Q: What sequence folds into this?
């Protein structure tokens, strides 16, 4: 087992379909000491299933969004290394070890998961394009997966980056803050999978909200440095 304490922090909203497999896969990693699921007021059995699988569950009284869930969870964990992971990774969550290794070895301050191409057609690239261009504009970094929420970082990095941006702007805000602070950000190819949104009303609604949240984070980055 790694001498450094590692915690996995998972914000989750209505992830009953995947959360058991996600927590179980992480629990099988010998490097992981603690798994914390922040249940963002799910209306399904996410909290119960996460607890049954071995996670410590923190419940939010009302749906507050991903950034708020991460901020709440970050107050509760005591670890040298923190893994931020989504609840819908299922069995593929075990590949988080690939993100962990460069940080443990000191080759990166924060790693970001680079997923394989999506299995179904989603949007038209507008959200990812906005995120990619915004990050490059503010930091010079060229990211293949600017929206990836699967990240590993040292506690020192996380404390420097808190609080996390609200809503779906979390990832873009994290990357910009980390690069500006001089931390080394490394994308790592991982064979992870997650629930994908298609070209339907639900998918377009989701991506529309993402676009607005990211635009807000980028606008704030121009003012707050």
A:
């Amino acid at each position: 087992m790694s001498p450094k304490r590692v915690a996995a922090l998972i914000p989750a909203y209505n992830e009953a379909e995947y959360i058991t497999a996600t927590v179980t896969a992480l629990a099988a990693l010998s490097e992981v000491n603690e798994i914390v699921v922040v249940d963002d007021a799910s209306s399904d059995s996410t909290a119960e299933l996460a607890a049954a699988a071995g996670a410590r569950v923190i419940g939010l009284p009302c749906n507050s969004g991903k950034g708020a869930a991460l901020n709440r969870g970050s107050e509760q964990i005591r670890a040298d290394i923190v893994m931020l992971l989504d609840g819908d990774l299922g069995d593929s969550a075990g590949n988080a070890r690939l993100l962990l290794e460069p940080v443990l070895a000191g080759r990166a301050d924060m790693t970001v998961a680079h997923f394989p191409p999506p299995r179904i057609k989603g949007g038209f690239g507008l959200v990812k394009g906005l995120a990619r261009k915004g990050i490059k504009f503010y930091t010079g970094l060229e990211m293949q997966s600017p929206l990836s929420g699967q990240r590993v970082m040292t506690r020192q990095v996380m404390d420097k980056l808190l609080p996390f941006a609200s809503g779906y702007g979390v990832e873009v805000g994290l990357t910009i803050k980390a690069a500006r602070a001089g931390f080394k950000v490394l994308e790592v190819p991982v064979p992870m999978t997650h629930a994908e949104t298609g070209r339907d009303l639900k998918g377009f609604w989701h991506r529309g909200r993402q676009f607005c949240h990211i635009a807000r984070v980028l606008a704030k980055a121009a003012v707050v440095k």
Summary: The first strand starts at residue 6 and ends at 12. The radius of gyration is 16 Å.
